[in-house]
Amino acid sequence: MSDFDTDYENLELTVADGVAHLTLASTSNFNSLNPTMADELFDAATRLADDESVRCITVRGTDGVFCAGADLALFDGDDSDAPDLRSLASTLHDTVLAFHQAPKPVVVGVNGVAAGAGFSMALAGDAVVMADDARLEFAYGRIGLTGDGGSTFWLPRLVGLRRAKELVLMDEPIDADYAVSLGLVTESVPSEEFDDRLAAMADRLASGPTKAFGATKRLLVESYGRDLPGQMAAETDTIANATQTEDYERGYAAFFGKEDAEFVGR
Description:
Belongs to the enoyl-CoA hydratase/isomerase family. The protein has ten helices and ten strands.
């Protein structure tokens, strides 16, 4: 990815062996989201989603914080904030959508507090690894605001409407074990094993049939808007199209050769 500009002020990005490692490293306190960081996140998300050499994306925080939400120090606390808050939320939403629609797995690593916008970004991962000393917090209501970043879309789909209402209205911190039991995250790991587990999951996903993964992600999400006949029609088209990939040829040959397939993501 020699043509990829990684000179970001609020992010760290490395790419190796098909995995893009994106670290939130905000110039604002507590890894808070500022306008420049939001713009950089959208730039990185769209480029990584489109780059076929990247077969898995990881997103994580730094220094024991994932993201504590928007940088409130940049606002005034009255209705004059509406234009700036609208702009920040819109850019965040474009980023979340880019990760959500990426034709490859996106793994979020929550290694500290994830509140507000950080909470929303955590929910957007295809898989979420959470350190056992981290926590999730909806947090918006504490300053009289409503959820953004797709949080009100994902919460009822992940935990059900009744539980979603409890989480946003009561707004208690959610520890790692409870987050797993609710279905908000994929797994909890001891903090000292967090880096290794995140890397191992990303490496495993990056070695898989990338195009099939991306198409299956799309089928799962779009199923919410279809009835069963419509979903099965989409499955028919998608599985037929998958035969046009090199990974299908490799998987087919490996199956009859009684060996593990070596997928290339094409």
